[in-house]
């Protein structure tokens, strides 16, 4: 930052018994009150340069011995700003930079330290510094703009608007013309000599601005249409990451909600937390309204992050609806963890309804007519979303209290034709079975009906066959599919014998089924014991049916081979 030095005398201000004074042989004849601070000063240097003090002291008689009291409680910038102006009047050395320029300027204007009162007065010097130094600097303009906004908002247009224009002008310059320092801390980026300036070099510095000023700068940049939408989206992403903590990784935020709801009395801590929440809500809703409508201006992962924040801060329904709609259209860009949207009341529980709504908006795209190229793109996107959602199901399955009915409903949100393979779904179902060992046999069967055994890869099928958590019916289906694949792969040249491991598995499962059934029947009354034979017969029938099926498949393939050989022999004899 650039500095301007005014005055040359040493600083002789001191504090004694809560009173600020200046070392002098002349008694103080002017008492000035600024908020809670009392100043004992002198008329002579101050009245020469301050038009306001001249007017306030004009009714004082010359021979009056008592110091004149003056109250300046309304001075902008308070004690700090007043002291800068007072030291200037005494000729004491002061340094002006972008950090204190606004305070000094507003206070000098308030005290009417203009050229009409004295030549080379403070206001004119500050105006020169503003135009020649502050507006020419990148960080100086941002610091001055932020200070002016926080003190007076848009009312101080003589500082705010020129700073906005200066910042926008620099943002629109080609990166090759950027010759000033800037903040850029992206992961993996290391500044090296002669390295080219990144296109988004400006995004981190302007993220320091309050949301209203940030919106003014970005809106002005967008209005020029000189920068692409993804660059605007990156600026929004940087700002949101700085001011909106992700609830997924800040469990303490959700605890703030819980403490407020449990508190019976309104406390200062609760008020501060509610104020912070309201500020985050305002930032979020403003950022969402600024998202460009162009596809790809922001990423799907960023949209889902905003949705998590919206869920936490209690954003408006229109804001949440917009985020769900946009995130749904770009769901293929996300990861499974992005769909984990914590509930405001419990950071360990997830809002599956929001994730389901995002998926529904993604699927709604397929109901609209589209060109062949767009259909191909959407088909690729569907494959990605299936993998993402199955991984999401696997994560949800880790919740030991998640109801099976809701889990099945979630799994069935994707249409049957969407999944080209069921490997991911199998892993999600297996995780649910592992985390819910007390499921009834009926629930386990209902859950495993989600899996199409024909859509499992060979490795996953082999794993599933030996999985004790799978119901007997599912494993028998897996073995049938495995045998069909084996026979189909053999073709008409050879017949693969029945897989010994498959036969052993069937035998083991049949025996296990009989033992389990016997153990269960032992606990029943004698009236129900005769049914045991029926269960044994059914278990034996299942095994016999599979053996007959395997034998029939083998005999059929053998007949085909003999027919081929006879046909080949006749052709050779001819």
Structural account:
The protein is α/β, with parallel strands linked by helices and 574 residues long. Among the domains are: 3-136, 2-Layer Sandwich (Potassium Channel Kv1.1, Chain A), CATH 3.30.710; 376-486. The chain has 23 helices and nine strands. The strands form three sheets. A five-stranded mixed sheet has the order 2-3-5-4-6, covered by helices on one side. The protein has a two-stranded antiparallel sheet with strand order 1-7. A two-stranded antiparallel ribbon has the order 8-9. Strand 8 (342-343) and strand 9 (346-350) form a beta hairpin. It starts with a strand and ends with a helix. The relative contact order is 0.04. InterPro entries: BTB/POZ_dom, NPH3/RPT2-like, NPH3_dom, SKP1/BTB/POZ_sf. Residues 28-98 form the BTB domain. It holds the Pfam family NPH3. Residues 200-485 form the NPH3 domain.
